[in-house]
Design goal:
The complex is a heterodimer. Chain A is mainly alpha-helical. Chain A is built from twelve helices and no strands. The chains are: A mainly alpha, B alpha+beta. Chains A and B meet through helix 2 and helix 10 of A and helix 2 of B. Chain B: Pfam families: FeS_assembly_P.
Chain lengths: 448, 107
């Protein structure tokens, strides 16, 4: 197959995702959830699920619907499933949050909110997994980066399944009452599969192809990424299978997680070595902002891994887990997603606007849709704010943490404006901006 | 090929420079995407490639090539073939564009 089509709802997915991110940031700045409240309390669960499902998963799903077909040179299995998936994910999360708010005493809602929200989310993720899974299935044998995505899809199934079970326990149903200890022991598996398997492992895999493409670095060596993938699936298999076994036997969970962490560190080290190799072999010396910021995000991930190892060695991991999770969710994943949106949004906008008139009239470049110098300051603020917020959590300075997240929020607003400017072609100089035959894009949906 | 045909091929190549790779920001002729242009009694045959097989811009590039070539006087019909054999390599980029993309001299 030659070429893939534009995914109509990609921009809609990104817009919904950014709205959730801003909401999460505002809630944190307002002092809602951790560290003002318990790390496993309902208020913290509200913020955590807005970030991981509303923001990160929604953005990742939108990007994967566009990018998996590029990765495997096959059309998306069913584009018609993508809008229902977005609706289910958004609705499911909203109901789930209402359930958490009820649990925290902020709402007087019925107890079925949590299981219903979880069911809607499971249905949404099932549509995503089936769609991307069938697309990958049609392209076997899978290229390296696609294997990471396939593993990520398996992990979101695990995450969602555990989430569904938790909702039965938390809402006090008779079925949930049969597993009173599930929450205590199952949360690490739920978090490991979600943050580690679904979000991080998928992002690592996609990074191989994206970095190679943007840096013009050779990535045809079949060995590229193999060690990172093997160590990663070992970590996930040990963590998930071992975790479930430990849960069943009621013992050995810590040892299992330690073994999984060791394999995960090896995976990250191999990934870091691969990215460094791509960087050194790149033909394009002058890197664009999105690539540079992706590398900064990766540095946050490496820092989080090194800090984790140090805290485990010092025996203080449990008391710092909130700070580490924040660094992974913001410094690494949010930074990486924002950096890539800074390329994907103008690229899709370019294709939609100028693709149909190419060859008939001169067209601008994708780079003409953005102003890197202006956006750089928002990225600097974003990463500085994320690192400062992590530091504030490490030293137990709750107010400092909220102030630092206020800076992150400001940076997010600034970058959101940059994305809107790209959609509006605001930085494209005349007369190239809207040549004859070109139609201006809509803000929130592509014309396809 | 006659001198007229050679002239027409040169004019087609020149016309194809209106088509750019949006990501790399340079025209596809200087990027080395155009593998072959031939003319056969007013029918232009163009063989081209793109950076990667699944590239969402590939179909637009192909269409853009057909559009721009068909605007060249003397061209009656245009036939564009997209191939990934051989796969495109950065070494196919012209020296001038290489330097503007920031290629190191060793490359």
């Amino acid at each position: 197959m030659i070429g893939t089509s534009l995914f109509r709802w990609a921009i809609s997915y990104f817009a919904v995702a950014i709205a959730w991110l801003l909401l999460a940031e505002v809630l944190i700045v307002a002092g809602f959830g951790f560290p003002n409240h318990d790390i496993d309390g309902p208020d913290t669960l509200v913020v955590v699920h807005i970030v991981t499902i509303g923001w990160l998963s929604t953005a990742l799903c939108g990007a994967l619907f566009q990018f998996v077909p590029v990765l495997v040179a096959r059309p998306l299995y069913a584009e018609r499933w993508t809008l229902p998936a977005l609706v289910l994910l958004t609705l499911g999360l909203s109901v789930l949050l209402a359930g958490f708010l009820t649990l925290g005493g902020h709402l007087n809602g019925p107890r079925w909110l949590l299981p219903v929200g979880a069911s809607l989310l499971i249905a949404g993720f099932a549509l995503v997994v089936a769609n991307l899974g069938m697309t990958l299935w049609s392209a076997r044998p899978l290229p390296g980066p696609a294997r990471f995505v396939a593993t990520g899809l398996a992990c979101i199934c695990v995450t969602a399944s555990f989430g569904g079970l938790f909702s039965l326990v938390l809402s006090g149903t008779a079925i949930g009452a049969q597993w009173p200890d599930l929450l205590v022991s199952g949360v690490p598996i739920h978090a490991l599969a979600g943050l580690g398997g679904w979000l991080t492992f998928t992002a690592m895999g996609v990074s191989y192809r994206l970095l190679a493409m943007f840096m013009l670095a050779p990535d045809s060596d079949a060995r590229l990424g193999r060690l990172a993938w093997l160590a990663g699936i070992t970590a996930l298999a040990v963590g998930l299978v071992g975790g479930v076994l430990a849960l069943w036997r009621m013992t050995g969970l810590n040892l299992t997680l330690l073994l999984a962490a060791a394999a995960a560190l090896l995976s990250l080290a191999a990934h870091g070595r691969d990215v460094l190799g791509l960087y050194r072999a790149r033909k394009r010396r002058a890197l664009e902002l999105n690539t540079r910021m992706s590398l900064v995000a990766l540095a946050s991930f490496v820092a989080a891994a090194m800090l984790s190892a140090a805290f485990v060695a010092a025996g203080s991991f449990a008391s710092h887990v909130g700070a580490l999770a924040f660094l992974v969710a913001f410094g690494w994943l949010t930074g990486l997603v924002l950096a890539n949106l800074y390329k994907i949004v103008p690229f899709l906008t370019w294709l939609e606007t100028y693709g149909p008139v190419m060859g008939r009239v001169p067209t601008p470049r994708v780079q003409d849709l953005v102003a890197e110098r202006r956006a750089l300051k928002w990225f600097v603020l974003f990463f500085a704010g994320s690192w400062m917020a992590t530091l504030m959590l490490l030293v137990d300075a709750a107010l400092g943490f909220r102030l630092a997240v206020a800076v992150v929020t400001l940076a997010t607003l600034g970058l959101s404006e940059e994305f809107i400017r790209a959609r509006r072609l605001a930085d494209v100089a005349e007369p190239l901006r809207l040549p004859t035959g070109a139609a201006a894009p809509h803000l929130l949906v592509s014309r396809n | 090929m006659t001198i007229d045909d050679e002239d027409l091929v040169a004019r087609i190549r020149q016309a194809l420079k209106v088509v750019i790779d949006p990501e790399l920001g340079h025209n596809i002729v200087d990027l080395g995407f155009v593998y072959d242009v031939s003319i056969d009694d007013g029918a232009a045959h163009i063989t081209m490639t793109a950076t990667t097989r699944g590239c969402p811009a590939a179909s637009f590039l192909k269409e853009g090539v057909a559009n721009s070539a068909s605007l060249v006087p003397g061209v009656d019909t245009v036939d564009v073939t997209m191939t990934f054999e051989p796969p495109w390599q950065p070494s196919m980029i012209s020296p001038g564009v290489k330097s503007s993309l920031g290629f190191a001299e060793v490359n």
